[in-house]
Amino acid sequence: MGAAVTTSAAGQPLIPQPPATVAALRQAISQIAPAALPAFTRELDQAADQARQGSDLAPLQRFIAQWAVYVHIQRQPELAADFRRWEDTSESGDAAQARQAAAEIGRILDEAHAATGLPAR
Fold first, then answer.
1. How far is CA 71 from its chain centroid?
2. What's residue 121's pLDDT?
3. With 100 labelled, which of 49, 90, 107, 115 sits at a CA distance of 20 to 30 A?
4. Domain map (residue ranges) of the chain
């Protein structure tokens, strides 16, 4: 690990949960998960295009909720590691392991949605 802000005191989040705005989420991702910035930008463009085409803010609201949850998880190294482990198990495990992994992923996502105060998936 480099000298970047990647470690935290026992169990403490790397950064506070940012406000659910595009600018604040982009800043948070650049700090804690810079490799995700291209996906963030691509998905933001898609959501903005969908919102314009439909004259509807729902695609942007879904985008913000999805990325707020992502930041909520990634700013907590232990939770992010658990999430990645369950994702790996869901892809590489047998049927029973995949079901358990799906349940755990769902639980983590539900808790993250509740913590952000944004609508559930």
1. 5
2. 53
3. 115
4. 22-116
Q: How far apart are CA 4 and CA 26, in angstroms?
A: 17
Token digits of residue 27: 């800043």
Retrieve residue 23's tokens: 């600018």
Q: Are 29 and 71 in contact (CB under 8 A)?
A: yes
Structural contact between residues 91 and 84, judged by C-beta atoms closer than 8 angstroms:
no
Q: How far is CA 20 from CA 6, 81, 86, 97, in A?
A: 22, 23, 26, 34
End-to-end CA distance of the chain: 33
Residue type, 33: A
Q: What is the pLDDT of residues 4-52, one digit of tens each?
A: 344 445 678 999 999 999 999 999 999 999 999 999 999 999 999 999 9
H helix runs in the chain, sequence order: 22-32, 37-54, 58-74, 77-92, 95-116
Q: What's the pLDDT tens digit per position in 62-113?
A: 999 999 999 999 999 999 999 999 999 999 989 999 999 999 999 999 999 9
Structure tokens at 88: 């790996």
Q: What's the token pair of residue 44?
A: 């933001």
